[in-house]
Amino acid sequence: MNHAHALPAGAVIADLADFDRRSGSLGERLLFNNRLAIVVLCLLITVVLGHQALGLRLNAAFEKMIPTGHPYIANFLEHRSQLAGMGNTLRIAVAATDGDIFSAEYLDTVRRLSDEVFLLPGVDRPYMKSLWAPAVRWTGVTEDGLDGGPVIPDDYDGSPASLEQVRVNVERSGEIGQLVAADYRSSIVLVPLQERIAETGERIDYHALSQRVEELRAKYESDRIRIHVTGFAKVVGDLIDGLRQVLVFFAAALAICTGVLYWYTRCLRSTLLVMLCSMIAVVWLLGMLPLLGYELDPYSVLVPFLVFAIGMSHGAQKMNGIMQDIGRGTHRLVAARYTFRRLFLAGLTALLADAVGFAVLMVIDIQVIQDLAVTASIGVAVLIFTNLVLLPILLSYTGVSPEAAQRSLKAELMEAGDTAHRKHPLWAFLDLFTRTPWATVAVAVGLALGAIGLAVSFQLKIGDTDPGAPELRPDSRYNRDNAFMVSNYAASSDVYIVMVKTPQYACAHYDTLMAVDALERELRQLPGVEGTSSLAGLAKIANAGMNEGSLKWYEIPRSQDMLNAIITRAPREMFNQNCDLLTVYAYLKDHKADTLASVVATVEAFAAQYGSEDVRFLNAAGNAGIEAATNIVVRKANVQMLLLVYAAVIVLAFIAFRSWRAVVCAVVPLMVTSVLCEALMVWLDIGVKVATLPVIALGVGIGVDYALYVMTVLLARLREGMSLSEAYYRALIFTGKVVVLTGITLGAAVATWAWSPIKFQADMGILLAFMFVWNMLGALILLPALSHFLLRPKRAVAV
Amino acid sequence: MPFDKLRANGMAYFIAGLMMYCLLAPPTMAAGAAGRLPDLLDLPAPADARAQTGTQLAVARAGERLVAVGVRGTVLLSDDHGRSWRQARAVPVSVALTDVHFPTAQEGWAVGHSGVALHSTDGGETWTRVLDGREIARIVLEDARARVDGGDDSTAAARALRDAERLVEEGPDKPLLAVHFADGGRGWVVGAYGLALVTQDGGRSWQSLVGRIPNPRGNHLYRIQADGDALLIAGEQGVLFRSADGGESFEKISTPYGGTFFGALALDGGGLLAYGLRGNAWRGEEGGESGAAWTQVAIDLPVTLTGAQRLEDGSIVLADESGRLLRSTDGARSFAPLPAAAATGLSGLAQAADGALIVAGARGLARIEPAHLAPSARSAHSTQEETR
């Protein structure tokens, strides 16, 4: 028996003088014989990092949310500078509530608004469009040929006559459904954004931009004008606004944890110390992020919270151990050292399991998830110092309140004193699962649930299922604005872009356009595609236009001269300056995974059949294209991540237990929970996406803590020769009750996220709460039941 | 269980015992031989799930049946008077088809871009190609050369030969825009840049009419149709041609309008209705030596008129490109808008056997019920007489 793990009591040493300071491992001696230095060091670190934490920024960059390593996204990023005004465009609809847009007041509002928007930082000004933009023109057929001009004529003066002229120009501008709603009651200011501000080279601050837009909204909205804004920048701005509310959840979680812990211990000082150490961990984490060049985004903002919760769980274990020892009469320093001896390895293994579980997320090629992985791993690593080291040291100074210690002792005496008859009913109930028939029932039910969950989880969807911005709630202002856009404008909010690469100046070759037209035709066969557009379609329209508007000419002209004439007039959204890149737009009905997958498959098949050196069809840009690539990455990552996180957990569990049977007992309950979590996602219609991808990894990483704490004690007792029932019972009253405590506390605390205005945080909260609670149940019910079959000692022999 | 779903589900995949760490690479492109797309003249029209809402350029009656033609070689058939449509079984080309005409219920012809003419002998179910732009260029060149070789040393003949040579050089880039057949044998096709051909044997052989139509500037010819026993062609720059001898020779009818006529319709009591750009509709009376006396018909909006159809009750419907329909019950002297409007981008009209009006255009096909063809009472316009 390894002395460092010798349990249960060690000797009860009431007087420090009787304690051998040289006992324990090197680490223990190093830490506990220099307690003051450690405390001072931690204080210094806290002050420095606390100062650093003030410089932490909240942001969410477009590129960080997409899988930049995927070939589709690489194609997109390679060509994005030549793809005019896509991917990241703000659409501001100015709606007249009273009458139509052909009023001097309305047009003046649009002019003043677009002038102000023009000056916002990050706007890609040459591509900005509104009724007032010179690039927005009308064309008409006359006996003498084509005629055209800006939609708002140069001599516009707001008079009824010039308003009538505007109306006529709008009607023949081809912008109905694009810039102007079909009912003439609203028009759009289209604002393409650059990822970096041209003047300064700085990354665009979406929150500031969103606030500026909100100011403009407040300024121009009246009882006659309504303003609707959509676009990625607005989503991010609203998300960051929503993050403010995360602080409320943080406070709520803090209050719940403190309350429950105090109710459990009835010891104010140790409760506060546990909270303090967990808070210190959060402060260190927040301070280290800016030092390492990280920002908090809407995803990683939940990490400090998780770190706090995990810290609380470990801290409570330490405090519980110390309290029990002090209750037995041990000196507080000795109690702290005993607890450190007993639980440091289990705690370290558990935290390493967490850290590795998070680090596994690094394989996912999406930077927000990688950032989340790094952030969470750092946070958990920090906990090793604050909650496994600093907390016992602090407790060795403060001790616990005598009443609480006595209370703990009394409870223990009552529980452990007469194992046969006077068990606490809950522990007695849980103990049943170490024996038949309860063990058999538990394993059977567990496996049945797993099988049902598995069957249901085959329906698990990839990607988003709600219309609009799925990050936000369906009834949020943003999604109402989005619904306005979708119902009033032809352009769908889900645009998939295929890039077609040709040799220079060959973008308008007849053969190229024929191939593009054939691709468009294939895409239009898909039920999820509402429409397409490209230079090929434009060439047909232009050919008709150049022949007096006769629809009989609606075909791509074979004459290259004619095609060359057409592209001189074509809008820049269709092709690039060098004429070596065409863009094919597919407007989709929705962004469900199946829809996106059908488009991807069609384009890939077409590219394989008809692509050549001279005409290369490249996936994918546009929000739907990016989402398609994200889905592909997420789908693949989901498998990889689970394999890796379980591999990591299994290895760590084996290191801790040195028994394959124990590993099976600890890991199978986690797997059942993971399967049930996926089934729950199916039931709640939550898809696997960037936001939910980390949940199972986090859930497994944290869930394994419970198993580690219970199994470590259980194994130690079994190795001492106790029966399974007895060993499990000991594990329950030593670490098991804290597992119950933390499982419920953490579950309740993350469940508060369900009220977040940010949809994916709500989803994460529900799923994590489920994982925490079920993992706890798994560790307390399925784990002993499996142990009954796998770990039953052949004979209870004293060592 | 579909493999896709298996892949979608990480946990299921994991538990299923596939513990192998496998990299699921993104879908790779099949290494099959990259093929070039065939030319549209050689590419059979593919089945198109959305053909019905795709652009349709013309519609015609084939007995009780309706046959519509449109972009990408689409031919649609309806046996329930335009309520439902299905795609023809076999069309050998994928070019846009611009016009269709069935002199009988079984025999019909369609024309389109790249100088294509198609022939069906089964009411539009299957089609064969009987002419294309390369063939047209050869025929026109032969004809022009024959004229010069035959001793015609006029500058017009020399220019016609040069034009014909250029036609061959430029390849099949000119569309045929209209077709008319008198019966199963005799038919005419006209198109861009003054193209015009005639067949006497149902399309097996064609002869050029280019030299026989006084169209020296090669204006586009948009429409050809019967005017009693005569033939009437309408085209660019206000040109109208008439042939009284079955297409052997054409005479030019002088008109007062210089913009494009997209069509001309023979009126019941003699006379013509020519219609075209920017709301121009002109009524021509049979006149003396100078051809006809023209009157502009008042159309309230300057929107291009793209089609006209004489209904069975003798009234005339005009369609404009915005989708508006106008009807005249007084021999094209005045037109009043119908309450029913079709979608914008209207191109062709036909009356179904049950009296409904079928319209073809940019948004596909639509059926306008006979009850909706009565003019709304309030908006009858008086004729604005303006004789030139």
From TrEMBL, chain A:
The chain crosses the membrane at residues 36-54, 246-265, 272-293, 299-316, 343-364, 376-400, 438-458, 639-657, 664-684, 690-716, 728-754, 766-786. Its main location: membrane. This is RND family transporter. Keywords: Cell membrane, Membrane, Transmembrane, Transmembrane helix. It is a multi-pass membrane protein. It comes from the Bacteria. Residues 275-397 form the SSD domain. PANTHER family: MEMBRANE PROTEIN MJ1562-RELATED, SSD DOMAIN-CONTAINING PROTEIN.
